[in-house]
Each structure stands twice: as C-alpha cells, then as structure tokens.
Specification:
Blueprint (H helix, E strand, L loop, with lengths): L2 H24 L16 H15 L2 H11 L5 H8 L3 H28 L10
Helix pairs in contact: 1-4, 2-5, 3-4, 3-5, 4-5
C-alpha cells in the first residue's frame, strides 16, 4: 500500500472512531422515516431520502465500508486498515451491502413510480 493510501486509511479510521464514539455517547441511531409525506417533494429529494434510509438500515460497519469505497474511493486494503478487517472481509461486506441496498431501493423506487407525477407550477 502506498504511503498516501496508508495516510488516507489512518484518517478514515480516526474519523470513523470519532463518529462511533459520538453515537455511543448520545445513543443516537439513524432515524427511519416513512416515504409517505404530506408535503410535496421533488423526485430527486424522494430518491435522496430513500437512499439515506436504505443506508441507515445497513449494519454500521457495512455502511462505513460501503461509503469508504463508494464515496471515499479507498481500496479494499485501505478500508481493511481503517476498520480492522481483511481485504476479503471488506469485499464481502461491500457485496452484501450492495445487495441489501439494491433490494431496499428497488422496493422504494417501485413505490415512488406508482405515485402520480406533479407538474411544476400546477396546482395540487
């Protein structure tokens, strides 16, 4: 692993530990809210909400590993260093997270597709 990769993994590990400590202290867990809302949202807001909820349903480590890979762009080895996992465990967790996200989001998106589309500026 290159020196830059080690530094990135080290920084992600520190950030992850700080967030985990904060959650433990405050007893905070991700809130899951219903997609059925009284106020109108744009389709992109609803998809973003569905994605946030689906990520919130993942196990903490699976979510961290998935986000480090997909958002942070870290390699399996770098993620393994940050999370005390082997590269194969990281690969397995990412695969499992993708499957769970696909299942959760496909149900949510199917629900959104059944809703009528509102035109901008049109009275509701």
């Amino acid at each position: 692993m290159a020196e830059a990769g080690r530094v990135a993994a080290w920084l992600f590990r520190i950030a992850r530990n700080v967030v985990l400590d904060h959650h433990r202290r405050t007893g905070r867990t991700p809130a899951v809210i219903s997609l059925e809302m009284d106020h109108p949202n744009s389709p992109s807001q609803e998809v973003t909400t569905a994605l946030d909820q689906a990520l919130g349903m993942l196990d903490d480590t699976d979510r961290d590993v998935f986000l480090m890979r997909e958002v942070g762009g870290l390699s399996y080895e770098e993620i393994g260093t940050a999370c005390d996992l082997s590269a194969s465990a990281v690969r397995s967790r990412i695969y499992r997270s993708r499957l769970q996200l696909r299942d959760t989001l496909s149900a949510d998106i199917a629900l959104l597709r059944k809703r009528p589309i509102r035109q901008s500026g049109a009275p509701s």
